[in-house]
Structure formats: C-alpha cells, structure tokens
Amino acid sequence: MTKIIDKDRFYYNPEFLGSASGRSVRILSEYYGPLQRMQRKKISDTIVFFGSARILAREVAQDALDNAPKDSDKQSLKRLKMDLKMSRYYEDARTLAGKFTKWSKGLKGTKHRYIICSGGGPGIMEASNRGASEAGGVNVGLTISLPNESSGNKWISDDLDMKFHYFFMRKFWFLYLAKALIVWPGGFGTLDELMELLTLIQTEKIKKRLPIVLYGKEFWEKVVNWDYLVDIGTISPEDLDLFHISDDINDTFNYVTKFIETNQLKGPNF
C-alpha cells in the first residue's frame, strides 16, 4: 500500500490551489482565514477608514519641499506644495483614529468594539493604523497584492495584517463588521469603495444604516457634484442623507459616536 504524505494531498498541492479548479478554495480561504483571526482577537466591530495611499505625513511632505533641488521646475514645486497641503488629511486621520480608539477602549465588554480598520497600505491607511496604535489599540489592515506596492504598514497589530488576492473579498471584509466608515480624499480605489458602499446601502443589500462621513468638504464637493445628480434625477434627494460631509475631527467623532450609541449597532452587516 502506497503511503500518502501531506504534500500528496490536493489541499497541499500548490499547482492545484493556484489553478482555475482551485479558485473556489482560494475564495473560501479569504473568508475563513480572516474570520478565524477576527474571532481569535475577539473583534466584533470595526470603524473603517478609506483613503489615498499617496497622501504623506506632514513631516515627510515638509521635508520634501524644504529639500527640493534649487533648480526644480514650477510644476515639481507645485506638486510638492500640494503634497504639503494634502498632508493635513494624514494628520487628521491619525488624530481621529486615536480618538476613536480611546473611546472604544472605554466601552464595557469582553470583545474589541469599533476597532480601526484600513486597507493596510501607506497614506491615509497608514495614518489610521498609526493613530490607533499610538493610542494603544488593536487595529486591522486588509492589504491587497498589487504590482509595485509594499505590504502592510508597520502600525498594523500582530496577526491582523491580512493579505488578499481578490478585491471583492477584501471589500467584503471592509463592510462585514463595519459600524462606521470615514472616507478621505483618494483616487480611483477610494471612489470605487465609496460608490459600492453607497449602492449597497441604497439598495438595502446592507440593511443597517451606517454612519458614513466624507471627510474633506473642498475635495468631495469638487470631485462629485451631488446636487447635480439629484437635479438630473439619477439619485433621489433622500440619497444625500446616506452620508455626512465634514471638515472637522470633533464633528466627525461626535456624529459617528452619537449615531452608534443611538442605534446600538451590533452584529455582521450581511
């Protein structure tokens, strides 16, 4: 009788797992793997931060501008000055994540409630993980395998830097335990995440009303003309009630915590 060793079994076979036939197994792995880690860490809720990977910390942006070559052209200097201006969002995300973390640590219960969760990369994602870590809290990073992009930032809690291959499974985990979402200035990825989130709530695929804050009034009012969408009838006036636009840390914090405390949001969203 031939002895069967572990590497002979299909679930240890890299060729099978990486093939089209193994796709369903890979997808399930990106459900059960994160579920196991969340349960192990006793995480029941998250507050999700979406935003650009390109926004720099203020000290980094300031240093880049201060040390720009003397022969830099106007366009390069304009870019560096804009990086410094946009760095306010990094600092605000860092501060707000710390504020939420201190608040959540004061709540009663054995499980971790309202844990900061980000996409795990640089920029706004790093700022949110950093703020939570500096406040002494557990935090989550849901990273994605992309060409030419580094893995999770150094501020993510041990065992909670979770790497995904499939964007749709990463999005699932952004929303599955979320009890609030703060959406910061960003590019295609951030806009994609926001629009899918609003669509799921508008169509009641997510049946709970969640507090959603679009942070950065100037940015959001320039990037999306919400009133025009109402005027031409592609969204309803009441759809504008799905989110709150803010430009202030305390306003955002108070809006989210009051919403959560009033509605007693609990459990998964799907």
Give a verbal description of the structure.
With 270 residues, this protein is an alpha/beta fold. The protein has a single domain (17-61, 88-263), classed as Rossmann fold. Helix content is 47%, strand content 12%. The protein is built from ten helices and seven strands. The chain has helices at 14-17, 23-40, 58-66, 74-105, 124-134, 167-176, 188-202, 217-223, 226-231, 249-263, and strands at residues 46-50, 115-118, 139-144, 161-164, 178-183, 212-215, 244-246. It has a seven-stranded parallel β-sheet, sandwiched between helices. Helix 3 packs antiparallel against helix 4 (74-105), helix 4 packs parallel to helix 5 (124-134) and helix 4 packs parallel to helix 10 (249-263). The radius of gyration is 21 Å and the shape is globular. The N and C termini lie far apart (48 Å).
Q: Top keywords for this entry?
A:
single chain, 270 residues, alpha/beta, Rossmann fold, 10 helices
Write the layout of secondary structure elements.
Layout lengths: L13 H4 L5 H18 L5 E5 L7 H9 L7 H32 L9 E4 L5 H11 L4 E6 L16 E4 L2 H10 L1 E6 L4 H15 L9 E4 L1 H7 L2 H6 L12 E3 L2 H15 L7
Parallel strand pairs: 1-2, 1-5, 2-3, 3-4, 5-6, 6-7
Helix pairs in contact: 3-4, 4-5, 4-10
Q: Give the overall form.
A: globular
What is the number of beta strands? Answer: 7
Q: How much strand?
A: 5-15%
Main beta sheet = 7 strands, parallel
CATH architecture label name: 3-Layer(aba) Sandwich
Poorly predicted runs are none
Cα-atom radius of gyration: 21 Å
Averaged pLDDT: 93
Relative helix content: 40-55%
- Counted up, domains total 1
Element order, helices and strands?
HHEHHEHEEHEHEHHEH
Q: Alpha-carbon distance between the termini?
A: 48 Å
Number of helices: 10
The structural class is alpha/beta
What is the CATH fold-level name? Rossmann fold
Order of strands, widest sheet? 4-3-2-1-5-6-7
